[in-house]
């Protein structure tokens, strides 16, 4: 077998295929961009990387693909990107149906938590790769923010981190904001690629809230826009419950777990659950503190 021959833009494989070299932006990344067909089988390994660790090019590819999934409906997307394409609304409807049912929350309170979210992520990843073929779904290691809020002694420190801010110094390398900053007024992202993202309104959907939005029935948010209140009925939640590295260590290595049954019941709560309240929270539900005080007075 002859050795691959080098060229300026990459190398020519023994079978004659031209293979682009991985870019200097992505040292060690498994990117090879075939520009000619090959008769040999290729194995392509995808690696799920930390969102914080992605180079700008990859982060933009991921976030821009998500934006496409917001804007392009299913039929049009399948025509353009192939059979694996699914819009964001496909995933939010599945999640809502599982989580917001009358009988129980099938997605979170029970043994289906991990397997159902893994399945949803796998389908999401196929849709992502129909648009951005070199990408895998990155993961968010939110224990990093866990250490930040503990160090600062305040939950507010979490919102000036790259995922959730418009602050250019945090976002770094001249990028557009990642997911964008939810402004105080309206609790909505107002600039960047995810500005003023709307929530589907569909009274015919099997699960919707009182205003027809595809939110849980008990979520009384009437805003047409994606909302990140970071609070719970106007009350700031203490930072102490933000999942920490230690909580994940315990779940992984605690010898007290003898069965999958015991382990999976804990997996969805302390190491994960509070993140939803911190990031999203609830709004348009008055002031929990005032409500509690008036209850006490009546008692
Ligand atoms: Cu969920």
In short:
The chain is mainly α and 299 residues long.
Notable characteristics:
3 strands; single chain; binds copper (II) ion; mainly alpha
Describe the structure.
It is a single chain. This protein has 299 residues and is mainly alpha-helical. The chain folds into 3 domains: 5-37, no CATH class; 49-139, no CATH class; 142-299, no CATH class. The protein is 35% helix and 3% strand. It is built from 10 helices and 3 strands. It has helices at 56-71, 74-81, 88-99, 112-131, 143-152, 168-171, 245-253, 260-267, 274-279, 288-298, and strands at 5-7, 10-12, 18-20. It has a 3-stranded antiparallel beta sheet with strand order 1-2-3, with no helix packed on it. β2 (10-12) and β3 form a beta hairpin. It starts with a strand and ends with a helix. Mean pLDDT is 86; it is low at 1-14. The structure holds copper (II) ion. Copper (II) ion binds next to α3.
Number of domains: 3
Strand elements, count: 3
Shape: globular
Integer-rounded radius of gyration = 22 Å
What does the largest sheet look like? 3 strands, antiparallel
Bound compounds, each kind once, are: copper (II) ion
Secondary structure topology:
Elements: E1 5-7, E2 10-12, E3 18-20, H1 56-71, H2 74-81, H3 88-99, H4 112-131, H5 143-152, H6 168-171, H7 245-253, H8 260-267, H9 274-279, H10 288-298
Antiparallel strand pairs: 1-2, 2-3
Copper (II) ion binds at residues 95, 99, 107-108, 117.
